[in-house]
Amino acid sequence: MITVRFAPSPTGYMHIGNLRTALLNYLFALSMKKKTGEDFSFVLRLDDTDRERSKPEYEQAVYEDMKWLGIPWNRLEHQSKRLARYNEVLEDLKQRGLVYACYETAEELEYKRRRQRSRGLPPVYDRAGMKLTDEEKAKLEAEGRRPHYRFKLEHKETSWDDMVRGHCSYNGAHLSDPIVVREDGTFPYMLPSVIDDMDFGITHIIRGEDHVTNTAVQIQMFEVLGGKVPVFGHPPLLTGKEGKLSKRFGSVSSRELREEGIEPMTIADLLARLGTADPVVACQTWDELADHFDLTRFGRAQPHFDTEDLFKFNPHVVRSMPLEKVNARLKERGEKEIAGNFWAAVSPNINKIADIAPWEKICFSDELFSLNEDDRAFCRQAAALLPAGDFDETTFSAWTSVVKEKTGRKGRDLFHPLRLALTGCEQGPELKMLLPVLGRKKTIERLQG
């Protein structure tokens, strides 16, 4: 069974780049289910080992954003609750000589890197920690230093076939042995992620291209731990106005988009195509979107994300919503349901669900709208010419043909006063659609003023 995961850090509100990672994993798994008929599992893992920056409110926001976006998870895990497991694996690696202690300070490491660069060498850690004797280690610790630990990479080619980038290969000799435990005893990302992926049976990992080098390191970790190496896919990162999207540097958050009235499927529709040559299509369901999803369609160039694209595309998604979905969205907002003829009339003028309420007030309130004397006299004359019977979509055309004949008015002189009398607006829904919504009684009241 395919098992994917989304692993946000609850250190800030999720931005569009985070949502993209979540939806690409979900869409991939859903598309594979539709192709093979086999079910999948989606793991939501909170990378919450950063004690200072991880906050309960950010964790809660992750749950809210995922539910709002419509991505369900089958399993929830917290890295902060798995520290005993990480330490168990760490001790095993120490015993096997695959993890070693180092005592350099951050300043000393940076000095080493600068010297290597000045000599035209790659800034790769020199494994000085491996050369320390027990006596030298004891002396350093007596001085108050505490060790950090590094994973010993094999100096060999590590390769994989990436679902987006194709064949990838890195030589371990060109990479620094990664730090797996900081001097304060906390775990950075690298080793816990591999342990989790192995323990949770993750089969496919889709994440940003900034993790490509990490993948070469983590494959070696999978191998020494006896875990099955997942299939990887690294789509290019999105860029925004400030460069790479990041919740630390002011990129628009998902909750801001929600508050602005952007629909979750607007985000899904756009991000599922951004970075491919495929046109963006206003799909209303994840199933519909998954029918046409193919991770191999993503190119290598970094796509540019502009929030304005969401606002431009949102009306297409909203206006194509079926009535039952519109009413479900109104229910979520604590608002009453609307009728089909009203939605058919006003939907071409709706950019977001919140735009429905003003048109409800226009159509169903008892408000009368003021006109100048000439236009009011014309509208009263027009009221007397309304055809008998129930109003439908043909009524307006038949009615205005008679009004034109009787009054001699045409074009704007004919239609503009009628629109002002019926809606109080300079522009809006087609009056042929709006007339049946207003009904005879309200139409006559508004025309007569």
Task: Report the β-strand fraction as a percent range.
Answer: 5-15%
Radius of gyration: 31 Å
Q: How many angstroms separate the termini?
A: 68 Å
The sequence of SSEs as H and E is: EHEHEHEHHEEEEHEHEEEHHHHHHHHHHH
The helix count comes to 18
Provide the residue-averaged pLDDT. 94
Helix content: 40-55%
Low-pLDDT stretches: 246-250
Q: The CATH topology of the domain at 239-323 is what?
A: Glutamyl-tRNA Synthetase, domain 2
CATH class of the domain at 239-323: Mainly Alpha
Per CATH, the superfamily of the domain at 239-323 is: Glutamyl-trna Synthetase, Domain 2
Global shape: elongated
Number of E-type strands: 12
Q: What's the CATH architecture name of the domain at 239-323?
A: Orthogonal Bundle
Structural class: mainly alpha
Summarize the biggest pleated sheet.
Answer: 3 strands, parallel
Strand order of the largest sheet: 1-2-3
